[in-house]
Write a structure and sequence with these properties.
This protein has 136 residues and is an alpha+beta fold. It has one domain. It contains 2 helices and 3 strands; from the N terminus they run αβαββ. Strands 1-2-3 form a 3-stranded antiparallel β-sheet.
Length: 136
């Protein structure tokens, strides 16, 4: 007798192999999505810090300042989303209450800031960091 088709064992083996492939693919996709969201968060934080340093520089602050993300939005430094907030891409929380500390670094105070050419004037800089990341 000539049999045509697959046996039950062959079909189960194919289904099992496909299940393993799908599981591996799903894990890889989930891991990649998580890394993308974390990178988006880093980019949002870096943008906020750069804008805070720029604000301090434009206003020539000569002391350390604390400023909230909401203050930067109110001053037109940061552009919020349509809902008026900066959103954390990881958990979709409101970041407007984050506090940023901008430290004033006087020229010559830090080795990285000093100029190598003694005939050029030294330049003061600012360094921003997140001092409070409590969501609103």
């Amino acid at each position: 007798m000539d049999k045509k088709g697959f046996t039950l064992v062959e079909l189960l083996a194919v289904v099992l192999i496909l299940g393993v492939i799908i599981a591996i693919g799903a894990t890889a996709i989930t891991s990649t999505q998580k890394k993308i969201v974390e990178k988006q968060y880093e980019n949002v934080i870096n943008n906020i810090l750069i804008k805070a340093e720029d604000y301090a520089h434009k206003n020539s602050f000569t002391k350390d300042i604390d400023i909230t993300v909401q203050d930067l939005i109110d001053k037109g430094i940061l552009v919020p989303g349509d809902d008026g907030t900066i959103t954390n891409p990881i958990d979709n929380s409101n970041m407007n209450c984050y506090t940023i500390t901008v430290k004033y670094i006087r020229a010559g105070q830090d080795n990285e800031v000093t100029n190598l050419n003694p005939y050029e004037p030294s330049v003061s800089t600012y360094e921003a960091s997140v001092s409070s990341n409590t969501p609103c």
